[in-house]
Amino acid sequence: MLIKNLVTGVFTGIVFMLGASAWAAENPAAAPVYAAKGEQTCMKCHDSAPVTDILSTPHAMKGDSRTPFANHACETCHGASPEHIKSAAHVTEGQKPVPPAISFSGPNAASAKDRAAVCLGCHENTTRINWIGSKHDRNDVACNNCHTIHVKKDPVFVKDTQPEKCFTCHAQQRAESFQYSHHPIREGKVVCSDCHAMHGSPGPKLVKEFTINETCYNCHAEKRGPLLWEHQPVRENCDNCHTPHGSPQARLLIERMPYLCSGCHSGAGSNQSAGFFGGLHSLPGQNLNNAALLNNELQYRSCLNCHTQVHGSNAPAGFAFTR
Ligand code: HEC
Ligand code: HEC
Ligand code: HEC
Ligand code: HEC
Ligand code: HEC
Ligand code: HEC
Ligand code: HEC
Ligand code: HEC
Ligand code: HEC
Ligand code: HEC
Fold this sequence. Notes:
- This protein is mainly α.
- The protein has 15 helices and 2 strands.
- The protein has helices at residues 2-18, 21-26, 39-43, 74-78, 82-88, 112-123, 135-138, 143-146, 162-167, 171-176, 192-195, 212-217, 232-236, 259-262, 291-298; strands at residues 181-182, 246-247.
- A two-stranded antiparallel ribbon has the order 1-2.
- It is elongated, with a radius of gyration of 29 Å.
- The N and C termini lie far apart (73 Å).
- One heme C binds at residues 35, 41-42, 44-46, 74-75, 78, 81, 84-85, 88-89, 91, 96-97, 99-100, 103, 106, 108.
């Protein structure tokens, strides 16, 4: 009995939309009543844009049996809504009709889970396989928080308008996009979805690939290596030194030079032999009292004055990334 209830519960949403007849036959009282003339019934009243813009989208392709319009039209998504139609026909000035079974926006909006369930009924295929349990799902963000259905071209698919959609919730990333150094998002060259998989990801922070590095290599392929002399933190995670969206430091660095380097190369461990002090070091035949050497280590490009190949080196003598 318990199992039957559970199964019934899970299926109600789908049945509700598609009216699976086997289940309905068993429970005749619950069989949904759809409008006899499909979208024509609804569009008697809802006859203007933006609602009617859906007619120019793939969802309205009646010739494609997988689409809402080839099923119960508007009610495939909004649910069977006889009460809405009935009451709407009789509302007077200042009154509101009973809302349809499922609203996606406004004060009558269904819960995020229920709204997403409608879409997943058709879209839970390969790319949405990680949706359930993803950060957005767990935080009650539904499909239509990003997607707009009653529109000719969904703004989230357009490079110039996608970031604005995300920034309505992600104010920090918006602020970062104005930093001195930033990925050219505002310039329209890179979009959020170049790096992020919005429907869930096996990697961290919804990045597109399994790791952050693999995501970066998609565009910065020259950093992939393999190199003769690898710099361990680069192989580990680009995040060790870079922040992806924007930084007040040049080159999207998380820290100013030389602190970026001295954060790890502080004098402890194997580097002691080179005479490390707060990340600074002597060179063979010189010591840190040498003013010219000190300047070199602290000024201009600091450590990068000499360690030009921080991402690793292919030169036979590139063990210290100086060539
Ligand atoms: C007789 C006219 C009429 C018909 C037919 C009709 N509606 Fe409505 N609908 C209305 C009115 C009036 C409102 C309220 C508009 C408002 O709040 O400004 C409304 C509101 C809505 C809303 C927004 C509800 C909310 O509160 O969020 C949706 C969604 C909707 N209708 C869908 C449908 C669908 C789907 C159909 C067909 C199954 C349909 N309507 C048929 C008149 C109608
Ligand atoms: C693929 C699912 C889907 C189908 C099919 C669909 N809608 Fe909607 N509807 C939505 C979503 C999602 C919203 C929220 C706003 C948006 O995304 O554009 C919405 C919003 C609405 C609103 C409220 C608009 C507003 O701005 O207040 C009305 C009215 C409405 N739909 C009517 C209809 C009618 C009439 C049809 C059939 C002609 C229809 N819908 C077909 C998903 C759908
Ligand atoms: C009855 C099944 C069905 C339902 C329910 C449904 N869709 Fe779709 N949707 C489709 C089909 C079929 C296509 C066309 C896919 C294709 O061409 O491969 C499509 C296309 C899309 C596209 C791509 C549009 C484009 O311009 O390329 C988006 C985005 C989308 N749906 C989102 C949604 C969202 C969000 C919901 C819930 C509000 C929803 N769908 C509900 C069947 C459905
Ligand atoms: C955080 C924003 C966001 C949310 C939430 C979201 N999407 Fe998307 N979706 C996008 C973006 C951006 C694209 C285009 C880029 C891409 O494919 O990654 C897209 C593409 C799509 C497409 C067309 C391409 C494809 O993958 O088939 C469909 C269909 C779709 N989404 C359905 C859904 C459904 C269903 C949900 C809810 C379960 C959903 N989306 C939730 C942002 C979102
Ligand atoms: C160049 C690749 C790239 C682009 C483009 C990008 N991101 Fe990210 N994003 C990342 C990486 C990598 C992380 C994880 C590392 C981190 O948190 O610093 C991340 C993390 C995030 C996080 C989680 C932050 C946290 O601290 O948990 C959010 C939210 C986010 N990105 C939103 C966006 C939005 C919105 C856009 C578009 C305006 C965007 N990202 C564009 C690569 C990118
Ligand atoms: C309706 C609000 C909303 C919209 C729109 C939205 N997000 Fe989010 N997003 C959230 C919330 C809430 C979280 C969870 C926040 C947290 O954990 O701090 C989140 C988390 C994330 C994360 C971090 C995931 C993780 O695993 O930590 C990324 C990346 C992200 N969003 C990217 C995007 C991108 C890209 C878009 C636009 C295509 C977008 N979001 C649109 C609300 C939204
Ligand atoms: C979709 C392609 C793309 C992806 C993926 C990508 N980048 Fe970039 N990256 C760019 C572009 C475009 C620029 C700007 C290049 C220019 O202006 O010459 C850039 C610039 C940079 C810069 C230099 C910024 C500056 O101020 O000069 C750094 C550092 C960087 N990316 C690191 C990363 C990291 C780390 C990742 C992974 C989290 C990553 N990128 C993923 C396209 C990408
Ligand atoms: C140990 C710190 C560190 C790590 C880890 C690191 N970088 Fe960098 N990266 C730097 C520094 C420092 C610069 C500035 C170099 C300069 O100005 O000559 C830089 C510059 C860049 C640039 C712009 C200049 C160029 O060389 O093209 C890109 C792109 C870049 N890094 C990508 C990456 C990617 C991708 C990863 C991960 C595979 C990564 N970085 C890991 C320190 C690091
Ligand atoms: C996140 C920590 C981290 C940061 C930041 C970092 N490194 Fe490293 N670096 C390492 C590790 C770990 C090794 C390997 C040490 C070992 O094998 O003993 C290393 C090795 C080196 C080596 C020696 C190569 C060798 O094989 O002995 C040089 C030179 C070096 N780093 C320079 C830099 C410079 C310059 C910066 C700043 C741009 C920097 N590192 C930033 C962790 C870091
Ligand atoms: C004037 C050029 C120069 C400057 C500036 C410089 N280095 Fe070096 N560094 C070298 C040379 C050359 C070596 C190789 C020394 C050797 O042959 O033992 C080296 C070696 C290293 C090593 C490997 C030491 C070992 O024996 O394991 C690390 C780590 C390192 N430097 C970090 C830094 C950091 C951090 C900075 C900035 C604070 C910096 N270097 C600034 C030239 C420089």
